[in-house]
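Sequence only, no structure available. Ideas?
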Amino acid sequence: MIRVLIVDDQKTIHEVLKSYLETEPDIKIVGFAVDGQVALQLVEELKPDLVLMDLDMPVMDGLTATKIISERFVTTKVLIFTVQDDDNYLYGALQAGAKGYFLKTTSAKELVSAIRHVHQGYFQLGLDLIEKYIYKILNLSSNLNEIYQLNKRLDLHEKEMTRFNNQLKNIQIKIEQVIDKDLGKILKENRDLFGQDTKIEFRLDSLNQHIHTLEKRKNVHIRFIWMYPLVLSVLNIVLISLLLRQN
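Reply:
I predicted one. Tokens follow.
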């Protein structure tokens, strides 16, 4: 016997689910809860095998209650029964530990089958959701194929760029070798000329030093010529002073 707890804030859903399940010989409804907090109390008290859980409820939502039940009561499985077909709700329910996810548009036959399979340990997803996600997977596969083809083209371009760069490096090496060879040849052919230039440069340096020495001497002579009258005047003053002292 599969003992089921129904959790939903709408009493009409309680009645609908009761009509779905009460005729099944291997399923028994053990209680009803109107929010997640009451559901936790009843799970602890009644120890149901399975909880049919709504998501949007006051006080405590279904995702929070599912997470707590999955952590505290490991023998109790949670099957989500909701109007929410948004991906975020589905992912949130899976992360919280739910073992199944069905929309409230699900038929009685499909829901009963899902309850039995979840109780046996199988994860269950509503047929309408399966169709939705198969379509998404097909689109994803198409996109992945396009990405794969693009990566192949990028790999080819990368190989071409590598080959082109290697060719450029080889050309650069050859150019440098030719330049070095020609430069060595020019240096060899003009070695004597460079030697003569060195001698000329040495002679020019010697000549410049000699000119610099002459310039210094010239400056000394010029300063002496400029000071000569002053020296004569000083000597005259000294002689006059000596003569006056003798008289």
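Residues 127-189 form the longest helix (63 residues).
Hope that gets you unstuck.
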